[in-house]
Amino acid sequence: MKIIEKEAKSIYTKTKIPGLDYTINQYVGCGHRCVYCYAKFINKWKNYGEWGSWVEVKSNAPILARKNVKGNISMSSVSDPYQPLEGELFLTRDVLENMDRDINLSILTKSDLITRDIDILKQFKNLEAGLTVNGFSDDVRKILEPGAPPHEARISALKFLKDEGISTYCFISPVIPLLTKVKKVVMDTKGLVNNYIVEFINFSLAGYEFKKILKNRFPETIRVIQNKKLMWNYIDTISSYFNRNNVPVSDFITHMGKRYWE
Q1: Model confidence over 197-235: pLDDT tens digits?
Q2: Which of 22, 41, 181, 215 is the most buried (most CB within 10 A)?
Q3: Domains detected in the chain
């Protein structure tokens, strides 16, 4: 892993993401090495090598985090605040220690490492923590997100956070036909989260390597994704499951534009 230390001018970035005012990224890049990651687009400006082989570290992020900002803040948008490197650097912990405890903060991660910082998380008055859970089998996870923790670790983290009184949510993403076990995720997180965000694979930003892997390893999956009618039928099946079982979904993101018959 190539580590690039940088001093940033600011750490709070204004965003047009609905419901948010700022994002905060103390890291850029991610050691989870998810081959489908939409954030690979940042390679256009970061000439460090293949996605997943480098992480940019904003070494002065803890000092910048002291700035008093108002509104809803999300950590993070082009990285994971609890990626493997955080276990060594404690940068996310240092950032949290310097943030105003009165802000509205939402943290999203794939990692159970978040439980390490429960003492600080409990000090925030308005904080929610989300775990990205997709229910991949271990064989699939090792191919598509080789640096990320397994399904069971993420479920354990949600249970721990819930038991400690932290507001939690589950981000089911990416939903990939025949690979993402949506029903398993819902069953395993039942009673552990307040709501769900569902996001289907953003195929246009997933990149060539991901498409190549699907073609070679999961041909039935790419057959569905590349056929708009089949993909919409799959989306409708998932949507029906949530509605039929009264699962609280706050956002349902398809990345599909208009339906095939429109």
Answers
A1: 999 999 999 999 999 999 999 999 999 999 999 999 999
A2: 22
A3: 11-253 (3.20.20.70)
